[in-house]
């Protein structure tokens, strides 16, 4: 009941509240980094890590300054604003994953 | 938490916030006001696109009432089916249940959609019932064009499997049994279609995995790959790997060298090409030309190409507003027809549907694909694409994506084989988990 009221209040002030919980730009990452961003077998987790660290890694991958098998090819597809949003999104998730 | 109340809360909020007339009109519809008060999202097809859509809808837009219609009670993936052919995986490893989606509050109905009425916004099920919807996500996959290769119909596929639409997994299991039963020294013939088709690197991963099995168990055997085109996905990487791992076991015949199979004789397992060469083989895998699944065509959504034209931001059908068509059935070129693209675009389609239900603008989009392929044991390669909608369609982001580096890079290949396994676990959890 209380959560319903909260949802109502949030939705009233912020019509895209639901969308903000799941930024679309981050969805592509979940196909490899675990459905909750917590990692999958050999692929490292992203959730709960400092945003600055994640964003720096993405920029380094894009600039070919960080070794990797695939992330350079991936990181070069995203804008600077998207990298910032991605880093903030995963940093805000609980480290073990949320879903 | 009281879900019903919460859904009502969101809906009321959305109604109050929706200044746009369209949103208000949708929200005022009595069909939404009744029952639980939730807008009804109907997902048709529980494969990569549909399962991903249903799961994402429940997580990101809990105010949506989500129903999924899918005839199979368990889903067998095409991805990693080639490893089953190699004997590296069992059918259980590539089979997924719908319990995860049920636990997330998706109503799962195991039936076929037989007809769609986009004006009344309802579908007719084979079992006789009708289901209404406010927006539909349609991800029915492909149909095989029986007869496009003369002599190759559904009956012939019981002798010469396609293993390209898994359904209950029977086709993949049949091809595996035939490979196991073949004598050492036999020729495995594979017919490969022209573009566009489901999973551009798929036939070449299949060649690789069959070669891996033969090298270990039937080393005198050969693979004859007859292709209806002159170039293919990750070609240089595949051919480097074939040479290194399998020597001269694999012969790939392109279109320009008479590679296009136009006729088959199932009884004698003979594949006949455009200029009349006849190849009798011990096992034949025929991957025929394809179109969007039958339901997309019978509902009038596909154009003359056989695929469904869609809006590149919302994936809404050009022919039928309110129906978002994702996955292999749409003409999403230059994006490939892959499970990853189906998963990724399904989420954008759900976000678009949710926005339109609330009278909001369709959100900005960026689409993502990776296809990993296994070339051999501990030998993986990949292709990446990042795409964005444009005014005229969809375009790949310049200077991004591309294929794994060429050269003698055993560590890269070993790592990518392991990452491919991690990808499979991750994406199937993101769809059915
Ligand atoms: C051998 C092989 C290997 C592959 N490997 C990869 C890979 O490594 N990576 C990758 O990303 N992709 C891969 N793919 C491609 C991937 O399988 C497809 O792109 C993906 O399945 C497309 O998803 P979809 O939702 O469009 O269709 P599907 O996954 O085929 O799902 C469609 C579903 O709709 C249901 N359906 C159809 N008609 C109706 C109806 N009338 N009513 C109700 N339900 C209906 C079907 O039963 C089916 O379950 C591979 C494909 C093959 C053949």
Structure notes:
The complex is a heterodimer of chains A (99) and B (433). Chain A has 99 residues and is mostly helical. Chain A is built from five helices and no strands. The longest helix of chain A is centred in the C-terminal third of the chain and has 13 residues. Chain B is α/β, with parallel strands linked by helices and 433 residues long. In chain B, 32% of the residues lie in helices and 24% in strands. Chain B contains twelve helices and 23 strands. Chain B has a five-stranded parallel beta sheet with strand order 5-2-1-9-19, with helices on one face. Chain B has a four-stranded parallel beta sheet with strand order 13-12-11-17. In chain B, helix 4 packs across helix 11, helix 4 crosses helix 12 and helix 8 packs parallel to helix 9. The complex binds flavin-adenine dinucleotide (FAD). Flavin-adenine dinucleotide (FAD) binds next to helix 4, helix 5, helix 8, helix 11 and strand 20 of chain B.
How large is the share of residues in beta strands of chain A?
under 5%
Taken from the alpha-carbon principal axes, the silhouette of chain A is globular
Unreliable runs of chain A, pLDDT <50, ≥5 residues? 1-21
What coarse outline of chain B follows from CA principal-axis ratios? globular
The total count of strands of chain B amounts to 23
If you compute it from the alpha carbons, what radius of gyration of chain B comes out, rounded to the nearest whole angstrom?
23 Å
- SSE order of chain A, one letter for each helix or strand: HHHHH
């Amino acid at each position: 009941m209380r959560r319903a009221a909260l949802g109502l209040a949030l939705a009233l002030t912020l019509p895209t509240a639901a969308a903000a919980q799941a930024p679309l730009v981050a969805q592509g990452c979940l196909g490899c980094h675990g459905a909750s961003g917590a990692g999958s077998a050999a692929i490292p987790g992203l959730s709960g890590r400092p945003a600055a660290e994640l964003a720096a890694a993405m920029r380094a991958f894009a600039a070919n300054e960080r070794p990797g098998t695939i992330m350079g090819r991936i990181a070069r597809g995203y804008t600077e604003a998207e990298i910032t949003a991605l880093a903030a999104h995963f940093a805000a998730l609980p480290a073990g994953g949320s879903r | 938490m009281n879900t019903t109340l919460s859904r009502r809360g969101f809906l009321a909020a959305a109604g109050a916030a929706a200044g746009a007339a369209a949103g208000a009109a949708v929200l005022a519809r009595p069909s939404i006001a009744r029952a639980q008060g939730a807008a009804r999202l109907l997902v048709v097809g529980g494969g990569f696109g549909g399962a991903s859509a249903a799961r994402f809808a429940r997580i990101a837009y809990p105010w949506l009432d989500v129903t999924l219609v899918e005839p199979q009670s368990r889903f067998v993936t095409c991805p990693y089916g080639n490893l089953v052919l190699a004997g590296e995986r069992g059918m259980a490893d590539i089979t997924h249940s719908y319990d995860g989606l049920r636990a997330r509050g998706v109503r799962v109905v195991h039936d076929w959609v037989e007809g769609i009425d986009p004006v009344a916004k309802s579908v007719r099920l084979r079992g006789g019932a009708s289901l209404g919807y406010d927006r539909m996500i349609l991800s029915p996959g492909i149909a095989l064009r029986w007869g496009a290769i003369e002599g190759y119909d559904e009956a012939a596929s019981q002798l010469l499997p396609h293993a390209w639409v898994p359904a209950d997994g029977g086709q993949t299991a049949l091809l595996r049994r035939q490979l196991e039963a073949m004598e050492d020294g036999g020729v495995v013939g594979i017919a490969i279609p022209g573009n566009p088709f489901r999973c551009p690197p798929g036939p070449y991963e299949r060649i690789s995995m069959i070669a891996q099995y033969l090298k270990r168990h039937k080393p005198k055997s050969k693979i004859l790959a007859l292709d209806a085109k002159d170039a293919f996905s990750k070609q240089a990487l595949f051919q480097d790997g074939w040479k290194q791992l399998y020597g001269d076991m694999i012969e790939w015949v392109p279109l320009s060298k008479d590679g296009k199979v136009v006729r088959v004789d199932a009884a004698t397992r003979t594949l006949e090409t455009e200029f009349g060469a006849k190849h009798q083989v011990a096992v034949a895998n025929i991957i025929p030309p394809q179109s969007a699944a039958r339901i997309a065509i019978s509902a009038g959504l596909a154009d003359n190409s056989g695929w469904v034209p869609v809006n590149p931001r919302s994936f809404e059908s050009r022919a039928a507003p309110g129906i978002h068509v994702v996955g292999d059935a749409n003409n999403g070129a230059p994006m490939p027809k892959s499970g990853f693209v189906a998963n990724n675009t399904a989420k954008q389609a759900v976000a678009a549907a949710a926005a339109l239900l609330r009278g909001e603008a369709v959100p900005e989009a960026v689409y993502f694909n990776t296809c990993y392929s296994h070339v051999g044991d501990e030998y993986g390669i990949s292709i990446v694409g990042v795409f964005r909608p444009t005014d005229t369609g969809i375009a790949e982001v310049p200077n991004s994506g591309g294929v794994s580096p060429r050269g003698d890079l055993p560590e890269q290949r070993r790592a990518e084989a392991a990452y491919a396994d991690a990808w499979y676990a991750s994406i199937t959890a993101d769809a059915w988990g």
